[in-house]
Amino acid sequence: MADFELIERLRMPAQTKIVQLVLDGLGGLPRELDGKTELEAAATPNLDALAARSQLGLAVPVRPGVTPGSGPAHLSLFGYDPLEYDVGRGVLSALGIGFDLHPEDIAARGNFCTIDERGLITDRRAGRIPTEFGQKLTALLGAIDLPGVQVFVETEKEYRFVLVLRPAAGQTLHANIADTDPQRTGVPSLPAVAQDGASEATAQLVNDWVAAARIILKDHAPANSVNLRGFAKDPGFPRFPDVYGLRGAAIATYPMYKGVAKLVGMDVLPVAGEAVEDEVETLREYWDRYDYFFFHVKKTDSAGEDGDFERKAQVIEHVDEAVVPAILALDPDVMIVTGDHSTPAALKSHSWHPVPTLLWSRFCCWDGVGEFGERACGRGSLGVFPAADEMQLALGHALRLNKYGA
Amino acid sequence: MADFELIERLRMPAQTKIVQLVLDGLGGLPRELDGKTELEAAATPNLDALAARSQLGLAVPVRPGVTPGSGPAHLSLFGYDPLEYDVGRGVLSALGIGFDLHPEDIAARGNFCTIDERGLITDRRAGRIPTEFGQKLTALLGAIDLPGVQVFVETEKEYRFVLVLRPAAGQTLHANIADTDPQRTGVPSLPAVAQDGASEATAQLVNDWVAAARIILKDHAPANSVNLRGFAKDPGFPRFPDVYGLRGAAIATYPMYKGVAKLVGMDVLPVAGEAVEDEVETLREYWDRYDYFFFHVKKTDSAGEDGDFERKAQVIEHVDEAVVPAILALDPDVMIVTGDHSTPAALKSHSWHPVPTLLWSRFCCWDGVGEFGERACGRGSLGVFPAADEMQLALGHALRLNKYGA
User: Fold this and answer.
1) Residue A381 with chain B: CB contacts under 8 Å
2) Closest CA to A268 of A74, A60, A53, A131
3) What is the ipTM of this complex?
């Protein structure tokens, strides 16, 4: 992974530009028909031509065998080892819905749940109520006032919501609070217990909020109670521009990815619509103002999650046609094409498989393999490498690192 | 990197011999003509035949994307992680000119510079004065006496020199002193400031020396002042023979490489001339007396630094003909062919690219690829691996490590 201390010692100014094109959930698995993966089955003349002049490899998002969530997977692409740079669940949920989290806020992930007349949990997901019902309930919960703090309750999806407590100016909240979710049924929810002295007052506020929420939800079974977990603040990571000396910008259309980029201090650029063409337009417009662009494509992952092999291949083909040549036309100095993790249609979910990745620069010793796919990358000269190395490699190829030692 | 504790636990005596043939700056980049690198373009029948019976891979000198200097790059080949085993600039410079540094000496890298009548630096490199002029000036500075220490001033190259202070018997100098070089022009040089109490007396000596130097240099513009940086002592690393249980010898013709070998406690063997044939002669002569030989070839790097693709390929061809068969004729048990870093002619400098490497032993599961080059190594079974692993691998292949655990 990126060694921030080393980079601070070695980095030097340059005019070079780096683009990291991230096709979410890019990696796949072979289909029965012909043994090809989604990426291999897709017709990608532009990526194949670029691959011929690139180094190929397989990027490991977190650790071998470990399936990452979107937050850690992206932190890794940005050079932050996700095991070292741990983001609390509450903060990830807040980022995921695009909540404008302030540094002093405390966020927790909430689940509506069902309790019986004795207060014992019978369903930890409240019968997976529809999102619309969840939204109605969070609106009701928004009426709960707590002394000295602003309270936000926002629906994430279905039975999931986010609770954010924002202290009054000059006040401080503390997030070292254990989950109230016992992670099983047949038992009552746990009280919010402070794990240190400083967090006791905040834990009391949380318990007051839960008590008020239960009264409001009493007659709304199956969503007649709540569990909370992952109390956390913005962890205050080293900022991407400070670490790398790069003016970094994110081009993405979904809240989670904008959120993670913002968490590390990138500027999140406006995109006119949801289409990759809109994202390309943003890239063109801001090209001169940044040194590094994180360019995120969401729909590969969505298709993989839906188990739709064909659609995932089509999304890749569309990126090949509408995005890759447009980026190259801007004449970047380093271009990486990768994914944050694999989402094989065969699994309908994120997976642990390392992600096909190409690195192009004017100074790369290209493998000469004119094909971008899992198998080609498995034989590539980047080898199987930590995704968190990509930024350091990119800095080298962008001539942005001084020599180490004489 | 080599795990010294583990090796100490496992190592066992053996009669086996290891040769590490280091072609300085071996790694290159493709040329326009046919997409071949220097090593690929060179006709190397002996290396190719050896490759067919070897494992191939790409060695990362320091960290992905990081370009190493010669000192750190060689430490890595010897199994010392250069980020952990950090050598001060002054010591590296002293080693680079072949200065016989004693453990108690303090060395600093010096630069002649130009100052104006107000004492502000106008040129940090004194107009890059020729080496001969630098030598004349260091001879003048050699006249400066300091109480209780011996002072050495030696030209490195052009405006660069090395200052060494050697304490009288029983005395101790301390090197925790900040650079006097402000790293920019338009400001005066900084005084030598001790970073701890113990270094105060030494800092005072340095300031006295600088004051005396300025008086001597007053009329020698553009070299009318000096800056000093990288105050350091021999860091006292674990000794190569102790760590590995190998009688280790270095065969090299340039001061820097002899110096780094000496720094880790290898014996530096005499070589009659500058040619690789002279080095081979030394290897033959001392073959029975050592278990490990570091065999260094300089001219690959020099040709790369000159941007001369053809000459670099020719040096490689010459090594293939004059060195490789001669080493194999001595019947080593393990032979590694590698470089300390890449020096692509296209970049005319050291670079961050991993280095083509082959490892041959009687017990290696050879890749069966009869070609030694960047691309062949990029597909090799050693993968992309830290150069600092080579010694530990070599010990294994030399049957010099016991089983770990029962």
Assistant:
1) 58, 354, 374-375, 377-379, 384
2) A74
3) 0.90
